[in-house]
Amino acid sequence: MGEGQPKGSSVLGGAVVNRVVKVVVTGPVNAGKTTLIRTLSDVPVVCTNESATDDVAGMKDLTTVAMDHGICYPSEGMELHLYGTPGQRRFDFMWEILAVGAHAILFLVDGSDPESIEEVSYIYDHFGERINIPELILVTKSDLEAALSPADIAATMGIDSNHVVACDPRDTNAAKATLIAFIESQKLEVCEPII
Questions:
Q1: How many domains is the chain partitioned into structurally?
Q2: 3-class secondary structure, 52
């Protein structure tokens, strides 16, 4: 630790960082995970996108096969590491790897797609059986006519509606405000190496 540096802090990129938080961003294919990380990251995002195959090819050209990683500096002294998971079950081994050491988890779901809502329930249960960390469900595409409200999605999943909010992953200010409010509400006061 540098001389004069506050105890429990680290120096990253020349700035004193008091809180380093690892956030897993997960959810079904095409829910907006990569978009959210690209929108929030203050550094170039590491993406492992490959050509989509099978049923995913009908939704989009590229899909995440290992992870996305970005870093966000939402306020002085805070550094958020965002780790995006693949959305396909066949890559669920990456879900386990990326969850190691996580402080919080965001589940994204396309509120206009019944299959996405069903799949996020599976992913939510999958993580719930393995880790116990703060969680928030972000409903994307809620501006579409067919979209269910966050309250309806919470009811479908059988969870508290306070854990489900609408979020446009393309809107930097709104997405950052949602993430900061979530992190602050959980009082995540951590500063440790990120794996």
A1: 1
A2: coil
